[in-house]
Design brief:
The complex is a heterodimer of chains A (about 300) and B (about 280). Chain A is mainly beta and about 300 residues long. Chain A has helices spanning about 15-20, 30-35, 45-60, 195-200, 260-265, and strands at about 5-10, 15, 80, 80-90, 95-105, 115-125, 130-140, 140-145, 155-165, 170-175, 180, 185-190, 195, 205-210, 220-225, 230-235, 245-250, 255-260, 275-280, 285-290, 295-300. Classes of the chains: A mainly beta (about 300), B mainly beta (about 280).
Chain lengths: ~300, ~280
Amino acid sequence: MSAEKPLCYCFNVTEADIRAHFASPAAGYDELVRKTEIGTKCTACLFDLDIVMESIHKGQATMKIERSHRTAKRWTEFSISDFADSGFFVCDQSIGTTVHLSNFGQLFGDTIPLVTFEFELMVFDQSGELACRQAGRIEAGQARAIELASIDGCPEHGWFLVVLRGVSEGFFGTMRPQIGLNGPSWSASYHTQPHVMATTGRYRYSVITQGNGEALATRVSVINGVERATQLEIELSGPDDRFQATAAHALAPRGSVMLDLDTLFPGAPADAPVFVSVRSDRPTRKHIINEHRDGSWSVDHFPN
Amino acid sequence: MTPRSPMAEPQLFPYLTPLIYPLFPVSDGELTVGLNLQKILDDRTLDPFDGVLMLDIGVYRNGQRMQSDTKPVRVKEGKADTAIDWTSYPLGTIGYVEMSLSAEQAVFRRIDLPVGYGLLSIPGYGTLTVIPDAKFARPIIIEQMQTVSSFCLARSGCRWHGASNAGNSIFLPNPYEKDIVASIHASPTKRIRHKVPAKHAAMVSLEPILEDGDWACVMVTGNNRIPAWDIRHAADNPARINSVDHLDVFRGSSTHRHVGVVDYAKHRTRRVLRRLGHVT
């Protein structure tokens, strides 16, 4: 994309025009659209506009589109390829957990070089003990659904670390693990997140929830992402000044817990949004689980 | 205080990119959004300032802006007069909420709005959390465009399971100015094309492209980028929604990172420790 060529062909708007517009510190996006009509006809330029906006926002020249990966060049340079994601699981009599891995090209095509991945799944019980593990390979164009209950030694509750490793250099594609929670008459899902993100968050620790009128029906899963014990401080507050309470819970190294907020905070308002905050002195991974009247669950992670 | 060098002066913006929240076709219930304005000021502005922010909220259903709210937020020395703005919107007819924040002067150092979760509450049933999507300039999509040069969202574990009444759909709002034809793929041969007119939203059942009981990777593309959410619901009642999650972008990122000898040694050590059952 050069600065001279139109970015929006319908209205002949160039990248230089856009940059000139944003040279004024008070310039806005809506004003740009009003003035130039960019993006309002065929809309094909919106992607490119996104890229230019990003580069303006970063104060850099537009990056060139790179389709190929770079290989290590110097003898002092090495390749590493481990991606470790984590999440919680339940494998009791009523709920099962599936870890789904898939290795497909974009729209199942072959426009980018896919590679075989090795995976290693480590399953920990709530006390932090390694309960079982499974390893394998996912070839390009293949998928695999791993029922955790089918692995010998899998406990009813705990968490897992799944390490993905491309056996040669290529693209990550669809390899982000997806977790299915399967109840007797429902199914829920969530995506795992890089485990390293659990080990760096120090301030994004709050989410909102709301009860069903009679109870909070909310649980919080907390995973201690490191090899040292941690002390959790759980706070429930709101709406306004109606309620504020804290509770404490100790987590073993690599331990995890599923906290029932109704047990932790009896008498908490169940009819309005409340904030749930979980602070810890070690990095933790946190999920919120809302249980519905029919027994079904919804799951989300705390903000990264 | 040492004055900043003009060369080091970062570019500031008078607006943040709008957030899109889904409004599901559920007959009774509401979407509640708590926007943490003070956190936005703390995270996105360079210096404390005095002024007024304008919070603009539009509710779109069937191509129409059915409801508009414009709320001024007064800021004094970087402190908002309302720390958290709570707003609720009834569900019912399918649609979406677009929420944007602008300032009189260029005060924001980044245009992406820190995510505030939405809360979907359905009386007599329960609640679900909903993560919004950005209308423009979502960094991870820009990264994808730069790497694989076309728009593609992926969800690696979709499933329709009639025996346990577990259904699965994709929610697609179109907050842009032109119609979008979205294409949802479950394999090289199984796909659904669905046109979403401008300012409309659609909930597309995956039943026609999923094998009953099997897990499948689903990918979404279109003639423009489009926000999308994975919706789990009762197979016999799409309005009985129990789980909502955003789709992930197809990752154009490389499988390998190139590092120096020290990081490589750490990496090898970490791998050995993991084999011994340690978390690193």
